[in-house]
Amino acid sequence: MKYVFFSNQGLGPKHLGIELEVISGLKAIPQNQVISVSCDSVLNGCYFNPTKNPFGCAICEERTRNCAKDLAIDSRHSLEDIEVQFEIPKIYSLQELLALKYDGINIGIGVASSIISLKRDFEITTEKYGKIIQEICHTAIIALENFKKIIANIRPDGIYLFNGRFAETYPIIELCRSQNITYNTIEVASPGKYYIYKNSLPHSIKVKKGIMEQMWLDGYFETQKRIATEFFESKVRGNVKGRKNFINSQQKNLLPESFDKSKYNIVFFNSSEDEMKVIEEWQHNYYESQNQAILRIVRENERDSNVHFYLRVHPNLADINNKQISELQLLQEAPNLTIIDAKSDVDTYGILNACNMTITFGSTMGIEATYWGKPSLLIGRTFYEDTDSIYKAGSFEEINEYIAKRLDVPKPKVNTYKYAYYFSTYGIPFKDFRYEDKKNASFQNKKFKAVYITTILRLITYLPKIPKWFTLHRILTGHNIRIQQLLKLYNQISK
Predict the structure, then answer these.
(1) What is the reported pTM?
(2) Closest CA relative to residue 378, chosen from 398, 400, 361, 402
(3) Could you read off the pLDDT of 413-436 as tens digits, one per residue?
(4) Cα-based distances in Å from 62 to 68, 129, 409, 418, 464
């Protein structure tokens, strides 16, 4: 069997280690051939290095080659630079970009995903981001044209790539689909593990539901309960492995000054809406945005003086300036809604405990609420939506019915264990890869370095790309390279 591995993870030690694990597993089968394809600084940036910083490109290329040199990869290929001849139409909305195709292959979904991750904004138009759209479209097209040639010449039995939703990878997935070629996306899983998704993106709700159900059937309840319990209690302590900790900056049990315990209090826990905006499975069928839903629910319950709403803005939205944040100004005008800022030291779990009911859009807080004995209403999409751990509403009428009847009985706590157990344990354990942090990673007992002798040699060949780096940096950030960026680069190289 012949497999093509798109190898572009050298700037992320954890991702590179997982890449090496997968290749090692493929090579363990004698009849398998693995062909590695690297960017070689051809693309106009990528997820890890969006401005095409030549120093980053050199680190990526040579760290990958040095770490993988003992894996007996059958052959290595580099992408070829291609002059893109494609007139990008004017984009007036995100939906238009999501539908953008090149030579019959959708490139718009990957381009949109890259821009959203870069700018944390899902209001994408030519007027706002014209030059960025052009550069990232070129990245998508170069990757696509290269893989057309690679597939035609090598005729692989399958293709492996990381994540899959970005501009440099999503068109390859669409190409595989059009030619009935198996593709495998790889992603980080629970701590110390990774997962390979066959013919699917890692973000698929349907696929993850299947994995979760099978894991539950294969396990032992007492073990599952113990692991699930530790997950929920670790979240409150703020020490879940592999997850960013937001609650240590909050004041334990602190509530908003105006909190009135005599009312029926409902707390919205929103989430970063930009993260899944391009994934079709995650879209909602009766509202366009979380803010739109919140505003309508609040307004339709204004006459009920015994109900008050709180919106706990997700800490991940701190320092973000996008449509989701700017729309909060409209919400502040509602007299029956109190907004808790993303940076507020109000205790997330304190407000959860003090309120009578929670409303979420798919975040983990929805199922956490049930675990801690609070009625939880889901009005979005999520992996745990079918575990009977939350109430669900498919319309505003249903939402208002739950509020009117003062929902006060949570779903059974035991129903939360399935998701928590899955989230804590799913994936394939690392075999030869060891990871403590970015500075301490190794594969087969060989520590990852940021700079090898060959890195300097590679960098010399990339020096002509410096003007492109300056141009992309200005286009993507809106300003020229600053001293802070150079210091950040130094820190990256010194790891």
Answers:
(1) 0.92
(2) 361
(3) 999 999 999 999 999 999 999 999
(4) 10, 33, 57, 42, 18
